[in-house]
């Protein structure tokens, strides 16, 4: 797997690159946000995962993550010393697929890399008779991950789309919070509960349909199909 390591500390990058290469990764090292963005151009080699340090010399790592997500769906794992829940939520809301806090265990980091890679491959391989979902004015194209409302494209983050697609596949069915977190975030991390609330609020705002996703108090959420 090709992996893009975005890290401004050469010593840290060299040590981590050596470990990753021993485990079969083809590592490209970017020392700044701009180098990372240049490596992720459409005509570039393509990467399976991006490991993104937040303390970069030229741009804030969060800003770089937002720019990455606008140009590619490549999984992004943030690697940082910022351990507070607010920082984690902010990173996930920007489209990061995972968030690893320094100092970390190398084995855990490798497991997370493989986990996000497996999820991405599984998503890309999903096929079925129903490639699109229509819920009143909302149209969800599963293969292209494109959402429109009354014909207007709505820009969603990776996790926002995953959440909407999950609920939309079974309108009216209540999904437990734990089930949503498990299926969308693939984790049972307790801090993800607040992230789920943020994503639901963001979806309601972006779709301009606050009643589309109903909160079932004490249980979870369900999608209320609008009138056609």
From TrEMBL:
It comes from the Bacteria. Pfam families: Response_reg (PF00072), Trans_reg_C (PF00486). Gene3D superfamilies: 3.40.50.2300, 6.10.250.690, Winged helix-like DNA-binding domain superfamily/Winged helix DNA-binding domain. Residues 2-117 form the Response regulatory domain. Residues 130-225 bind DNA. SUPFAM superfamilies: CheY-like. One of its GO terms (molecular function) is transcription cis-regulatory region binding. One of its GO terms (biological process) is regulation of DNA-templated transcription. CDD domains: REC_OmpR, trans_reg_C. Keywords: DNA-binding, Phosphoprotein, Transcription, Transcription regulation, Two-component regulatory system. The modification 4-aspartylphosphate is found at residue 53. Residues 130-225 form the OmpR/PhoB-type domain. GO terms for cellular component: cytosol; protein-DNA complex. This is Sensory transduction protein RegX3.
């Amino acid at each position: 797997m090709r992996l893009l390591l975005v890290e401004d500390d050469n010593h840290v990058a060299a040590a981590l690159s050596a470990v990753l290469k021993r485990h079969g990764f083809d590592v490209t090292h970017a020392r700044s946000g701009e180098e990372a963005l240049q490596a992720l151009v459409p005509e570039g080699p393509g990467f399976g995962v991006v490991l993104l340090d937040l303390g970069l010399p030229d741009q804030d790592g969060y800003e770089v993550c937002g720019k990455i997500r606008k140009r590619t769906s490549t999984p992004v794992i943030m690697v940082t010393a910022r351990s507070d829940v607010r920082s984690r939520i902010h990173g996930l809301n920007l489209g990061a697929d995972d968030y690893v806090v320094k100092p970390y265990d190398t084995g855990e980091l490798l497991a997370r890399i493989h986990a996000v890679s497996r999820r991405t491959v599984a998503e890309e391989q999903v096929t079925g008779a129903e490639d699109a979902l229509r819920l009143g004015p909302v149209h969800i194209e599963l293969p292209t991950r494109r959402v429109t409302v009354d014909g207007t494209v709505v820009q969603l983050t990776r996790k926002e789309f995953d959440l909407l697609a999950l609920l939309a596949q079974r309108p009216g069915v209540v999904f437990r919070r734990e089930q949503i977190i498990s299926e969308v975030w693939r984790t049972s991390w307790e801090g993800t509960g607040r992230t789920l609330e943020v994503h639901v609020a963001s979806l309601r705002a972006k779709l301009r349909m606050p009643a589309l996703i109903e909160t079932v108090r004490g249980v979870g959420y369900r999608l209320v199909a609008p009138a056609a």
